[in-house]
Design goal:
Layout lengths: L2 H17 L1 H19 L3 H5 L6 H13 L4 H10 L9 E6 L6 E6 L4 E5 L18 H5 L1 E2 L2 E2 L9 E5 L2 E11 L4 E6 L4 E7 L11 E2 L5 E5 L16 H4 L2 E9 L4 E12 L3 E7 L7 E7 L15 H4 L6 E7 H9 L4 E3 L2 E4 L1 H6 L3 E6 L3 E6 L5 E6 L4 E6 H9 L3 E4 L5 E3 L1 H4 E6 L4 E6 L4 E6 L4 E6 L15 E6 L4 E7 L8 E8 L15 E7 L9 E7 L7 E5 L14 E2 L4 E2 L10 E5 L2 E9 L2 E3 L2 E5 L3 E8 L8 E5 L4 E5 L3 E8 L4 E6 L12 E7 L9 H6 L2
Parallel strand pairs: 13-18, 35-44, 38-41, 40-46
Antiparallel strand pairs: 1-2, 1-34, 2-3, 4-5, 6-7, 7-8, 8-9, 10-11, 11-12, 12-13, 14-15, 15-16, 16-19, 17-18, 20-21, 21-22, 22-25, 23-24, 26-27, 27-28, 28-29, 30-31, 31-32, 32-33, 35-36, 37-38, 38-39, 41-44, 42-43, 42-45, 45-46
Length: 701
């Protein structure tokens, strides 16, 4: 091949790469998609029965022996391996603990699919790095100060009729009493609300059966509204609370103006669950420290761990939320720190708050799929205690009380509302359910998952006697929460269960003194009573606390935004979004407007010149329409970093307060000429009357 011919080929290829944006966005993408389709197995291939030849058996045996694998290992691998191009059956949404985020894992593959930024700025998603007017900055402010971390604990999926509907996900921040709203069309956080009554919480975020309300329970009693009182005034001045955040599904936002709270005694309220089916209209909430211990070992008092665990019984809170809603609507509230609160005397007088005893230091109340029973596990009691909602309703109607607490809240007689107790093991915490009439309880001290039978309407579903322990599976180690497939919805699937182990000890390669936690996948859908562990997955980011598992096909995720110029936060096409042909820089005094578009492999304009001290409003539209054609945009030195998904529009504002020459570039690898997708922000120093011509600078003149 002669040099001239080689040059022509090279020039043609360069021309295609430089000018052929449309080629890259369509032809190459189509080819890649076609290749993906070729690699993906057809339905017929997936359904074809597997028949191993003797040679294949020998090869499989050779590999297994070389890696010291036994038959259980091979079965576990076969149950969890998900070939490239085949999607997981479920998505597990997990809290991220001290990372402040939410994690999404595929099940059964246990592959991390996405981290969703919520309470902590996250640069990959451009979350919290959008200049001076970034809404994230405002939503992460508490009392005028930025709080840039969170302790996410309890994700809650939106529900319709008690079923996960795949539309929204809510997540609580225990450390700072905040609730985040995530839109599952684009898996982005759209709203964060701060509870104005309390510093921290723990009982969120669970929803009523049609997502009328997001429930946020308290944790450590305090003086509501950020008030102060000495600890000696604990019983008089400290209070617990539960907040009902009204959710506007059409807007995809919490409506603070229609939200309210209830004052509760200064017990330490914990997890809650909403009734459904037979118990629709109620919420149930644990509490501990009914002793109202105030700690203070430095003063000779019992430490909280002893003082808050003296009694054999604490109180399950039973709240008729529709009656509470009516009281709020009638104006029977007191404004505390600008927020409406139903006071204790109103809840008692109107009859929508009751207690019943629960053993001992409980950490979870879980409603069965049909709403017939509520299951409570006391950390310091080897039993789970099952309550009947029918008996609760009758006891309330008949005023079957065993007394009242010191604040006058009526206490339903324990024997009148209790249905059964099942001895499951040491350290029971939380319970999930399957579709076959079984319940699954985590055992923290035993490091095990217990399977036991439900009674009532579930008796016909399983062959064992009701209210009996069936089996246990050891897990590693110290399990906290657990999650079954759709396991706290009205129609659970069974099949898979996640054990969220707090310790991993010897499970994985040591990563220093700080070790990952361990998500173990259990097969609960096999025949027989066995429920083996089939996968160990290290989670080395924060302390995941709770998760929910939804069928993947319920998620209706956008892969490209609906229109070019889409404002992801406002969920609409933004009229301010620059279009092709409208790019440029305009000035109004010291205010500069930059209109920019982004597409493989360039930004337009590529040079932006401003003066030191100018306020810059920068608008960028990604005009990409191909799946996965994401761009980033950053300006080093100004803390600007954005993620531009296909067709997305973003706007940011900052003051050019530091003179200099600042490259900007695409941070997301997007094409063969990704490195060339760049430009310069030129900030002229004060006092400079004219900037050197760019061609002179480039020529070294």
């Amino acid at each position: 091949m002669n040099a001239r011919f080689r040059f022509r080929i090279g020039s043609a290829l360069a021309a295609m790469l430089l000018a052929g944006v449309a080629i890259e966005a369509t032809t190459l993408t189509a080819e890649a998609q076609q290749e993906g389709r070729r690699r993906r197995r057809s339905d017929a291939q997936e359904a074809a029965p597997l028949e191993l030849t003797p040679a294949q058996v020998a090869k499989l045996t050779e590999v297994a022996n070389s890696r010291s694998l036994n038959m259980d290992d091979l079965l576990s691998a076969a149950k969890t391996f998900t070939p490239s191009g085949r999607h997981d059956e479920y998505v597990l949404f997990s809290s991220g603990g001290q990372s402040g985020q939410v994690f999404a894992f595929g099940v059964p593959s246990m592959r991390l699919l996405r981290s969703i930024a919520v309470f902590t700025p996250e640069s990959w998603q451009g979350y919290g790095f959008g200049g001076d007017n970034d809404r994230v900055h405002e939503e992460l402010m508490i009392n005028g100060k930025p709080v840039l971390w969170g302790d996410t604990h309890h994700p809650g999926l939106s529900e319709t009729g008690g079923e996960y509907d795949g539309q929204f996900l809510f997540i609580s921040d225990k450390a700072n009493a905040r609730v985040g709203v995530i839109d599952l069309r684009d898996w982005e956080t759209k709203q964060i609300v701060k509870n104005p009554l309390t510093i921290s919480d723990h009982g969120g975020s669970f929803v009523t059966p049609n997502t009328e309300y997001i429930i946020e329970g308290g944790q450590y009693a305090t003086v509501l509204g950020y008030g102060y009182a000495p600890i000696e005034d604990y019983q008089k001045s400290y209070r617990g609370m539960v907040t009902f955040w009204k959710f506007d599904r059409a807007k995809g936002r919490i409506d603070v103006s229609k939200s309210f709270a209830m004052e509760l005694p200064p017990y330490w309220q914990d997890l809650s669950d909403a009734g459904k089916g037979a118990s629709d209209g109620f919420i149930f909430m644990n509490s501990f420290n009914v002793e109202m211990a105030t700690g203070g070992i430095e003063d000779g008092n019992p430490p909280f761990e002893a003082g808050a665990s003296k009694r054999d019984m604490d109180y399950m809170h039973i709240i008729d939320w529709r009656k509470a809603e009516a009281a709020f609507g009638a104006g029977k509230v007191k404004m505390i720190n600008g927020f409406p609160v139903i006071m204790l005397e109103t809840s008692i007088a109107d009859g929508f708050l009751h207690f019943t005893p629960e053993p001992k230091s409980p950490h979870g109340v879980d409603v069965t799929p049909n709403g017939q029973f509520m299951v409570v596990a006391g950390k310091l009691d080897p039993h789970v205690t099952v309550y009947s909602v029918a008996k609760v309703k009758k006891a309330i109607a008949d005023k079957k009380y065993s007394g009242s607490d010191v604040y006058g809240v009526p206490i339903l007689d324990f024997d009148s509302v209790m249905e059964a107790q099942v001895e499951v093991g040491l350290g029971p915490l939380h319970t999930q359910f399957d579709d076959k009439g079984y319940a699954y309880t985590s055992l923290f001290l035993d490091s095990a998952v217990a399977r036991w039978t439900l009674g009532g309407e579930y008796e016909a579903k399983n062959p064992e006697q009701p209210w009996k322990l069936v089996t246990k599976t050891p897990v590693q180690y110290n399990i906290g929460h657990l999650a079954a497939a759709e396991g706290d919805s009205a129609s659970p699937d069974g099949k898979y269960l996640i054990s969220m182990a707090k310790w991993s000890v010897d499970r994985f390669l040591p990563t220093g003194p700080l070790l990952p936690q361990n998500f173990q996948l259990l097969d609960i859908g096999s025949t027989g009573t066995d429920m083996p562990v089939i996968y160990d997955m290290p989670v080395g980011v924060g302390e995941p606390h709770y998760c929910q598992m939804i069928k993947a096909d319920k998620l209706k995720t956008w892969t490209v935004y609906p229109e070019i110029g889409w404002n992801a936060h406002e969920q609409r096409m933004d009229p301010k979004a620059p279009k092709s042909g409208s790019e440029g820089v305009t000035r109004d005094g010291t205010n500069v407007l930059v209109n920019m578009t982004a597409i493989r492999s360039h930004f337009k304009p590529e040079h932006v010149e401003v003066n030191e001290g100018d306020t810059i409003t920068w608008r960028i539209t990604s005009t990409e329409t191909a799946i996965d054609a994401t761009h980033g945009f950053c300006i080093g030195g100004y803390n600007i970093n954005l993620s531009l998904e296909p067709s997305e529009f973003v706007e940011f504002t900052f003051v050019a307060d530091r003179a200099g020459t600042y490259p900007f570039y695409c941070t997301e690898f997007c094409s063969a000429l990704h490195l060339e997708m760049a430009g310069y922000l030129h900030v002229k120093p004060k006092g400079l009357t004219a900037a050197p011509a760019l061609d002179s600078v480039q020529a070294g003149k």
